[in-house]
UniProtKB/TrEMBL annotation, chains A, B:
<keyword id="KW-0804">Transcription</keyword>
<dbReference type="InterPro" id="IPR036390">
    <property type="entry name" value="WH_DNA-bd_sf"/>
</dbReference>
<dbReference type="InterPro" id="IPR036388">
    <property type="entry name" value="WH-like_DNA-bd_sf"/>
</dbReference>
<keyword id="KW-0238">DNA-binding</keyword>
<keyword id="KW-0805">Transcription regulation</keyword>
<dbReference type="InterPro" id="IPR002577">
    <property type="entry name" value="HTH_HxlR"/>
</dbReference>
<protein>
    <submittedName>
        <fullName>HxlR family transcriptional regulator</fullName>
    </submittedName>
</protein>
<dbReference type="Pfam" id="PF01638">
    <property type="entry name" value="HxlR"/>
</dbReference>
<feature type="domain" description="HTH hxlR-type">
    <location>
        <begin position="10"/>
        <end position="109"/>
    </location>
</feature>
Length: 110, 110
DNA sequence: CGGTATCCGCATCGATACTG
DNA sequence: CAGTATCGATGCGGATACCG
């Protein structure tokens, strides 16, 4: 997602540039709920994302230091994803979104 | 933005479907800051949005009852945008995003 | 298991012109 | 002032195939 100039007038823009990707918030949310997840575990939780998209979003989150990727040199391969401390700092945003979304779903037909 | 199936497992998805549009959060933020804004006032605050996009996002926010559009039948035309009570209820999300974005911009080079 | 690589359709978005 | 209409390019993202 682009980093719009009005970032300077609204820091929300900076937030969106980091966690505004199509599946990023959902990924962060499930990683927060589960602490550690392997690729396919995460994929089962977010089945509407293709392998490609899930990997791409994870790479971006990793590049932005929100997510840690730990590779175990074993066969079959084992890779674990978890939140970094910085990633955990997004929690207030996630919780606000989760709470608002939940109340919306409750009010309107879920 | 689409409404992913994992909405059912993560209400954040519902939130994103309402405020996840390209300029929606920034729009909501400025409307919260200013209470009432005319179309061109808002456009000056979000100059990277084209007229088309700004209008489109505002229509969607209006359809979702987050924003109220008040038209004054005068020449030249006068239209005022403001948050509905429901729109104001998103504030916790906006503030969380703003706070996190601000601290990020402070830590890294803005 | 945990991914890449490639191709490509199609929605999104920008640019431009025009209007009440 | 506050938009709409239209066209066309871009790039996101899905489908598929393949790899260490």
């Amino acid at each position: 997602m682009k980093n719009p100039p009005s970032t300077y007038r609204c820091p929300c823009g900076a937030t969106l540039s980091l966690i505004g990707g199509k599946y990023k918030i959902v990924i962060l949310w499930f990683l927060y709920q589960n602490s550690v997840l392997r690729f396919n575990e995460l994929h089962r939780l977010v089945p509407e994302a293709t392998t490609k998209m899930l990997a791409q979003q994870l790479r971006e989150l990793e590049a932005d230091k929100l997510v840690e990727r730990k590779v175990y040199p074993v066969v079959p391969p084992k890779v674990e994803y978890s939140l970094t401390p910085f990633g955990r700092s997004v929690l207030p945003v996630l919780e606000a979104m989760n709470a608002w979304g939940a109340s919306y779903l409750e009010a309107h037909g879920a």
